Amino acid sequence: MTATTLLYCVGATKAGTSWLYRYLHDHPDCVMPAVKEAHYWDTFDADALEKQLGFFRIRLREMRNAKIDANDEGRQWQVDNLDRRINEMKGLIAVLEGDRSDDQAYVDWLMRGRGNGVLTADMTPNYATLDDETLVRMRDAAPGSKFLLLLRDPLDRLWSHIRMQARRQRQEHEVYEKKSNNILYRMLNRGHEKHILERGDYPKIIRKLRRVIPEGRLMIAFAEDLFTQAGLGRLCAFLGLKPVKAEVAAPVNAGPEVVMLENLRPRALGMLNEHYEWVARNVGPLPQRWQENLARG
């Protein structure tokens, strides 16, 4: 029996990782965990761990309440689904709270109950910000693990991330569109929200991954190619899966459309110009969307 391969999808944030999770979740050869983002490798710091555990406990409470409602209304299929999700979340919380001097409990949690599945995954975009030492530890935790980095057009990714930030931070009296553009203005003029730029620093992330991950175990792909037959075929070949038609046609978790102020767009593109050019030189020809945005700058 062939061992199940562990895939780390390490980002980038707002580059299609949720869409890919759904695609792999529905793929007949994959056995995906109920938790998309395990946040194991980015929570060794005590404060980061406590923050993430707090979020997971809230989700656990929400699922338990949803199970009660589903049971009361006789939706047994939903009860069964929630039981699985609850048990996996409880298991992950136990792993994060337990002894992490080695990583076997984490690997066991990912592999438990996967049967004859070809692939399982931890798809946590924040892993792109990890240091070399942690990436090496990830690489060696499960033999044959693979790493995937999705690259989305830099301006589109930046603006999507900003809109997500605006949704999370917006107070009741604030206008969502204005809030989004204010975040971009502060980023351009005051150096605020540096973590948004860090999540999309493709040259830095790719150099780091190439230093520590063997070539055959690392794939860097354009998110825009995920929605093409050829792009999905290349991805499935890397993952050892047979290509299947995607059931989800559009990206999930897409935020409401918000127009970027025209006076900010050229400056944002100027800030990102190095990323466009570096990727073109070091990864491959840019997709059409990248070329269009670059030309607008």
End-to-end distance: 53 Å
**What's the overall geometry?**
globular
Number of DSSP strands? 4
Query: Which CATH class?
Result: Alpha Beta
What CATH architecture would you give?
Answer: 3-Layer(aba) Sandwich
Spatial strand arrangement across the major sheet: 2-1-3-4
Q: How much of the sequence is in beta strands?
A: 5-15%
* Structural class category: alpha/beta
Query: Which oligomeric form is depicted?
Result: single chain
Listing every helix as H and every strand as E from the N terminus to the C terminus, the arrangement reads EHHHHEHEHHHHEHHH
| Helical content band | 40-55%
Structure characterization notes:
- The chain has 297 residues and is an alpha/beta fold.
- It has one domain: P-loop containing nucleotide triphosphate hydrolases (Rossmann fold, 3-Layer(aba) Sandwich).
- Helices cover 55% and strands 7% of the residues.
- The chain has 12 helices and 4 strands, in the order E-H-H-H-H-E-H-E-H-H-H-H-E-H-H-H.
- The protein has a 4-stranded parallel beta sheet with strand order 2-1-3-4, with helices on both faces.
- Helix 2 runs antiparallel to helix 3 and helix 11 crosses helix 12.
- The radius of gyration is 20 Å and the shape is globular.
- The protein starts with a strand and ends with a helix.
- 30% of the residues are buried.
- The mean pLDDT is 93.
